[in-house]
Amino acid sequence: MGDADRYLLLVDIIQSVRWSDDGRGVRIIDQRELPARYIERDLRTLDQLCDAIRTLAVRGAPAIGIAGAMGLVVILSQEQHENRDGLLARAGELARSIAATRPTAVNLAWALDRMRRHASVVDGDIQDVLDALRSEATAILDEDREMCRCIGEHGARLIHDGNRIITHCNAGALATAGIGTALAAIYVAAEQGKRVSVYADETRPLLQGSRLTAWELARAGIPATVIVDSAAASLMRSAAVDLCIVGADRIAANGDVANKVGSYALAVAARHHGIPFYVAAPTTTFDPDTPTGADIVVEQRAAGEVASHFDDSNGAALVSVHNPAFDITPAHLITAIVSDQGIHEPPYDFSTMVPRSWPK
């Protein structure tokens, strides 16, 4: 078995979100447990779904969009509806509750809105609408897999043999239904026979880099080294880095990018050291209705995610905590943005960007 075959086998078996075996639940890999334990869970209620998204059991902009769409079907299918109008009204209530769990990642709101719009144009009775919604959620899942592969193909063109790459957070198979976004480019480059190695930012405070990205890369046989976030700039200064590539949770019309907090600092360091900084995301992450990054609502996470590391004996637990989940990287710091539609170079204008329509 060659390295490319090994890569394909290892990456393809990661399914972060899919239907449960009985079709009545959303099956996820509980990413809170990785890398110590690999546990899959079936989400069957609104509380389970919202808790899983909010607490990052399922995470990554594409993956939570898919989980939201599938979860909407699961919950609606369990309930009794008086008539078709009642079903549609309930779908709207559920969609608002689910979307509120992660306000920054546009994929979640996009997927739920797509489901509601599809339900509104379906002819037939309640069961016809439910069947159509299940098919639409499956289509969103399948389309994301296709988009990930396309992102990988386009992104691999930016990676050369022997490149040393820094990535931040986790933008791999665990964050999508396919092979990832930022990591997709790395996986496809390796599949093409390019020798690559990756520095994975630890990604404070929840360690998505050291827990998830490192786990993925090790399974795929990609050489990986975990670094603390603050070590990235000094690595760049020592000429140990050739490029940076990260994912995105929302891309504004002007090319400003919301991604895991720490991405902006990485982009600033990369610009100072003359290192390309790339962003990879599906077109479902582009938000043409948001003009700039200043218009993006940045989710604030619980103080306990940071304060849990404090030692009460030094009084640190008494201070306040600022814990944004994301930061905004301005477009002028981004060398190029890779989507399933190609490589986009500045000046950026995504005011008319729409997801590609994939055959069902």
Short description:
The protein is an alpha/beta fold and 360 residues long.
CATH C-level name of the largest domain:
Alpha Beta
Radius of gyration: 20 Å
- What is the string of SSEs from the N terminus onward? HEEEHHHHHEHEHEHEEEHEEHEEE
Question: Given the structure, what is the number of helices?
Answer: 11
Q: Beta-strand level of the residues, as a percent range?
A: 5-15%
Uncertain runs are 1-10
Domain tally = 2
By CATH, the superfamily of the largest domain comes out as Translation initiation factor eif-2b, domain 2
Structure description:
The radius of gyration is 20 Å and the shape is globular. It has 360 residues and is of the alpha/beta class. The chain is 39% helix and 14% strand. The protein has eleven helices and 14 strands. The model is unreliable at 1-10 (pLDDT under 50). The longest helix is centred in the middle third of the chain and has 31 residues, at 126-156. Strand 1 (17-19) and strand 2 (26-29) form a beta hairpin. The strands form three sheets. A seven-stranded mixed beta sheet has the order 6-5-4-7-10-13-14. A four-stranded mixed beta sheet has the order 11-8-9-12, covered by helices on one side.
Relevant terms:
alpha/beta; Rossmann fold; 4-stranded mixed sheet; 11 helices; 39% helix; globular
Question: What's the topology here?
Answer:
Elements: H1 3-12, E1 17-19, E2 26-29, E3 40-43, H2 46-54, H3 61-78, H4 84-99, H5 106-120, H6 126-156, E4 164-167, H7 182-191, E5 197-201, H8 208-219, E6 224-227, H9 232-237, E7 243-246, E8 250-252, E9 257-260, H10 263-272, E10 277-280, E11 286-287, H11 304-307, E12 326-329, E13 336-339, E14 342-344
Helix pairs in contact: 3-4, 3-5, 3-6, 4-5, 5-6, 6-7
